[in-house]
Amino acid sequence: MKLRTILAAAMSLLLALFLAAACGAPAAEAPAEPEPAAEEAPAAPDSKYSQSPSLDALVASGELPPVEDRLPVNPLVVVPGIVSEVDDLPELAIGEYGGVMRFAHPNPDWNPDIFIMLNENVLAAPGIGVEGIYGNVVENYTVNDDNTVFTFNLRQGLRWSDGEPVTTADVRFAYEDILLNETYSPSMPNKFRSAGSPVGTPMDLQIADDYTFSITFDESYGGFLRELSIKGWQGYTDVFKPAHHLRSFHADYGDEAEIQSMIDDRGLDSPRALFTAIDCRNWDLTRQRCAGFPALWPWIGATDSDDFLKFERNPYYFKVDAAGNQLPYIDEVVSALVADTDGVNIKVFADEVDLLREDTALLKLPLYQEAKDDGFINFVILDNHVDPTAFYLNMTYDDDVWREVVNQVEFRRAITMAINRDEIIESIYYGYASLPELVPGAYDPEGANALLDGIGLDQRDSEGFRIGPDGNTFILPIEHADHAPDIGPVAELLTEYFQEVGIKTTLRQIDPSLWSQRLNANEMQATLIWSVQPMWKNGTWTDYLPRSHWAHNWRVWMDTNGESGEEPPDAVKRLIEVHQGRVKAIPSSAEDVVLTEEMYQIHYDNVYIINIAEKVGYVLVTDAAMRNVPIAGQAIAGNNSGEQMFYASE
User: Could you tell me if 452 and 411 are in contact, meaning their C-beta atoms sit under 8 angstroms apart?
Assistant: First the structure.
């Protein structure tokens, strides 16, 4: 029996059960015994700020300073509209201290839900976007009239998690000793060049005093503030580095013999390799090696096991609630390693996970509803920041026959026409989705067959599959990893659709690490994974540019300004030019809007990213006792508001 037949029958039954439960079940009550005893944050009589009771003994013993000495002079006060990038909370309640937030993760040393929750940016904005940008790690900023000089003021009294002050010395170290040092940074990142261009002049840093610095470009750079906010989850770690901690591992400051000894002990080959192994950048923050590294995150890594992640409250975290209670409310964050994404969900249904977004699936709605009825979780269906499955054909894969076929836009149009998206939306996404707008989305297998015949794939082998230009059966090999629970079922349906129009298609699921290796080595011909850009607010991401998913060698050409890789066709060159224009433009300006529309049109005409569905619902699961959880907007915003979440005792 074909997968679609099985899915259709199962979906009908499960949907009926889900709707009956959702409509007829009473509202779930919080469990009788929520997370470890939460205590209401007390108001200290001698301070306008309060702390978690878990820190009281450390303060009393003198191991920690009082809370008012651990906070900046002007901490970031979390109120509606400034809610760690979240603006869709039902009511921002003053929370209760205590508890452990439990997660699970299928990939060793990595949990994306925790990564999003801990990551802090230099700047922030309400919602998952880049409009209304305000100071986050920095207190505030100013920009001159022509968008060439950006001045930032640090929060006086801001401290690293080990208690050391954060000053412009940390900015200078990151700039002069890392970004400008060819030993540690072979090239300046594009975002720190004028207009964000690979050929732009590198930025210039001016330090005014311990708390004020300016970044200057020799060309207008209207999009620079986006680069310091949530765009790309870039975090603060390339602007601020804990110089007091890292200098001893840097060849210009540390003892040469000690550095060489550490290089030898770790089996490394250079001072740069040692520094990279020590420095904890934002993408590393869930790694075991980052335990104890000085940081500005709400919880600091304390992991000492390969199969269990642990993060403890940062006593110097720079945010407070409206009543002056230092955040976060929850004391610890932990995550257990499991085999796969299904294993993560099994822990949800066993009441062993308190927050899950990354590995939820609409296919599991009836099971989430059952767990909600049992009283130990809540869930909401929110907006998705991605299109959860997109199909990619690598147009620069090193095979002449493959290239001859997939580089014809008629072939890619035939592929998108062969996909029965309505069936996928109903059977995989329970109707919580719509047809894509980035590419033609209508199901037309007859039209697909006509296009394939018209480009010379009109001959068939003995099994009825199309013969390629070399006289052999043309094969479309799809490889994917278990990045999300819906990717496998969608891949199986795509395999059926493509074979129905005569394209012999193979399907293989591989390990996520192998998937990444093959993708980055240009060894993958076709794959599925989410497409980030279309659902993000304007200017927040850059997935419209060539990527290894669909044009590895064109991406190398773009990143090296034509020195390496492979020169792309004119339409892709124009896509790159449009992107560079958008980087220079002020977000949402008339110029930005025009360029954005052109970018969409280029993709629609050329079908570079074959989106399956758009506006797909995303399930956010939380413990039934958890409060300050978003009820609207993008589900990923729930992760960003983690420091404000708490377990209600009643």
Answer: yes
